[in-house]
Amino acid sequence: MGAIEQEYIEKHAGSARLYERAGKVLPSGVTHDSRFMRPFPLYARRAAGSRKWDVDGNEHVDYVVGHGALLLGHSFPGVTEAAMAQLPLGTHYGASQEKEVEWAEEVVRLVPSAEVVRFTSSGTEATLMALRLARTYSGKPAILKFDRHFHGWHDYVAASSKYGGVAPAGVPQGTLESVVIAPVALDAVREVLDRRDDVGAIIVEAAGASSGTLPVPRGFLRELRALTTERGIVMIMDEVVTGFRWAPGGVQELEGVTPDLTTLAKVLAGGLPGGAVAGKREVMEHLQFPPPGSKAEKVGHPGTFNANPLSAAAGVACLREIADGEHQKRASAHAAQLRAGMNGVLCELGVPGVVYGQSSEFRILLTGTVPEAADYDPRNLSWDLLAAGNPSERSRLLHLAMASRGVHLFGDGGMASSVHTDEDLAVALEAWRGSIVALRDEAVL
Ligand SMILES: Cc1ncc(COP(=O)(O)O)c(C=O)c1O
Questions:
Q1: Which of 151, 210, 216 to mutate to test the pocket of ligand 1 (most atoms within 8 A of CB)?
Q2: Whose CA is closest to atom 16 on ligand 1?
Q3: Which domains does the chain possess?
C-alpha cells in the first residue's frame, strides 16, 4: 500500500469502522454509487456553510455541495429557517397546500420555458415524466438521447457507450429498442431522424455530458432547437444540475434557447429532496384531468412526496434568495479562481493535465499536455481526451490525497457554493499542491 492510502486510513479510523458496519447492511456499504470509494468512503457528521466535518473530527472544504444541490452552501440561514418553521406545521398534509403554488410560481418566474410545473421527488423522476409527456404529446414511442449524457437512473436513460452497446444490467432489451443514442453532432441527429420516424423527443443535458464534463459545442443547443422545431420533435432540456445554478433561469436563460420541456431538481428544493418538469402548457396539459364526459386519456402521475411541505418551504426560500443572480456570480467567481489556481500549480510543477469547467464547477483531467496557467474553455479540448477521463487509480488516489488534506471532491472535480471563501480557496490550493506532489512521489502521474 502506498503513502497516500496509508495516510487516508490513519486519518479516518471512524469512517473505516462505519464502513465495516455498513457493508453488512448496505450493498458495497453505500447509498449512492458515486460515494463508493476504496478502501472506504468518508462518513460525515456535520456541515455548515462551505465546510463539513467527518466522524473523526477532520474538517473539509466541501466541493460536493450536496451533489450540486447546495448553491447556497450548507444550512443557509434563510432556507434553514423556512424548513424549521414548516416542521412543526406538518411534513405531509395528504392535501394540496399554498407552498406548492408559491414554489411553482417561483419556477415560472425564473425559468424561461416554464409555463406550467409538475413537481416530482427527484431528478430521475423528472426526466422519466418528461419523456412520458413527450411521448404522449408526439404520439411517438422512441426518444433520442446523447451518448454519455446523464439523466438519472431509470431504464430509458441508462444506456450509454460506457456499456459498449450492451444493455445495462437489469434493463430490458425491449425498453432499449425505444431509445436511440446519438453522438453530440447535429448531422448524426439528422441522420437518425431521417432513418426513423418514430422518434418524438430529444433529451439533452444542458451543459453537456455529466454536468459539463463533455461540454456541448458552441451553438449546439440553438441548432438543436431549430432542428427539433422544424421536425416537430419535443426538445427536453435537462437542467437538473444547471437549473438555477448557471443562472437564475439556467442554461436556457444564458443561451436564449427555449426548450419545450425542462427537467429540474437539486437547487430547486434548497437542499431537500425534490424535482420538477416544467414547460409549455400545450405539452404539460397532458397531465391535466380531461373534462367530465371526455374519453381523452391523461398521463398519470402520483408520488407520495411530490411537493411535500418541507421541500416546498425550503425551495421557495431558496429560489427567492437566488433570483437576482448574485449567488451564482459569487459561486462562479470562486470556481474560476480555483480553476486558474489549480492550473497554475500544474504548470509550475510541470504536470500534464488541465482543470476546466463552466459556471461554478471545476473538472480535473490529469492527462494530456502541460497547461498554461490560465482558465480553460473546455470546448477547446478534444472530446476523446475528455471522454477518456483520468485513469481510475489516479483518480482514486487524488480523491484520497485531497480528503486527507481537508478537501472533499465530487468525482474528478466539484462545485462551488456562493459561501466558499478566499480562505477555502487557499486551503484547496494548498491541498492540491500537496496532493499532486504526493501522486508524483507515488509514480501515478
Ligand atoms: C443532469 C442530471 N439529470 C438527472 C439527474 C438525476 O437526478 P436525481 O439524482 O435527483 O435523481 C442528475 C443527477 O445528478 C443529473 O445530473
A1: 151
A2: 241
A3: 3-74+326-441 (3.90.1150.10), 77-322 (3.40.640.10)
